[in-house]
Structures are given as C-alpha cells and as structure tokens.
Amino acid sequence: MRILLVEDDSQLGESLEAALRLEQYAVDWLRSGEPVRAALASTPYDLLILDLGLPGVPGIQVLRQLRADKHRLPVLVLTARSTVADKVDGLDSGADDYLTKPFDISELFARVRTLLRRKGEQRSTQLLAAGISLDPVERVVSFNTEQVVLTAREFAILEILMRNAGRYVSRARLEEGIYSWGEEVESNTVEVYISRLRKRFGSSCIETMRGVGYRVPG
Questions:
Q1: What integer pLDDT is reported at residue 21 of this predicted model?
Q2: Three-class SS of residue 145?
Q3: What pTM does this model have?
C-alpha cells in the first residue's frame, strides 16, 4: 500500500513518515500543496494524508481540486483546526475522515486501516490466479488453500502482479510499488523478490519475458 503524506511541519512529517514505514507502508512526503496534483497524476496511491495548514496552496483547496478532478482517492485530513465548522467544511469538501492534532499514533493507524479497508471493499477484494489467493485488505495470502506468510515487499510485488494477471508488468512498475521517494533502488531487488516468490509458490507461478517484465498467468 502506498501513501502520500502532505505535511509542512518537518518534525511531525519525519515522525509520521518513519512510523508509517514501520507499519510496512510505502510513503512519499510532500511539504506543500503545490506538487500534490502532479504527484497523484504520476503515481498510484492508496491513501492521501493531508494537512490543511499548508504554505502556498491551502490543504482545503488541494482537497477541493482533487474532488473536482473526480479523483476517488481516500483522504484523511490531519489538522490542528478542531472546531465543528472546520470539520464540517473539511468533510463537505471531500475528506473521508478528519483527525485533529494532537493525536495518538495508534488512532492514526486505525483510521488509515479503516480507509484502506473501505477502498479495498470497493474493488474485487479477493485476487485469484495460478492457485494463489490474495486478500489485499486483510493482507492474507494462500496457496492451494494453505496460508503463506510473506514479507511486506513480497506481498506488494505479488499484489501488483495479481492485479495485472495475464499481463506483463515492468520491473520499473514493480520498483515503484515497493520503494518510497528518496529510497535507494538496488539494481537486483525485484529479481530477488521474484525468486523468493517462485520458491514459495512454484517456478511456474511467475513468468518472465526478457526486456518486458513479469506476469502471473491469468
């Protein structure tokens, strides 16, 4: 799961980025509202965590533009604005949830899980291919009815491949799904995880076309 965090407070932003990564989310952090639209156009995100008190373009304007563009990305507003009028304005502008500062990190995680679960329920929850069953909401994988425990990056790569079952997915797209901005991309990372997945599910579960990418047979 990939999250876009938009927060101008450096200390809070660093803490949230680190905490969310420990929860196995890929996180990209922006400090202002201006680049949000471009980021959403270039990268597929599962959730936006948005501060309202941003420099330049206010967070509420970012939110309204997002909904004007018909973008259905779940949005969790994170702000110090705590009046009822502020909450009503945020929710009416298109926020899916509204959390006021200061907050407990465990509550933030719970709200993130809830919004991601709702998004998952809007799509086909259970992914099935090549004898593998993957539930992206509960993050459970089974192979021939036996549950298989995967690391976060193994799960992320398998989910991308299964959402595109029958189609080849490039290495660059898989790297995009497991690395946050600023993380150093190791040249053979994808190959290592593909090898691990083949050991878990059998060599035929993922096919390779040199120069094109990888696929799970549809």
A1: 87
A2: coil
A3: 0.67
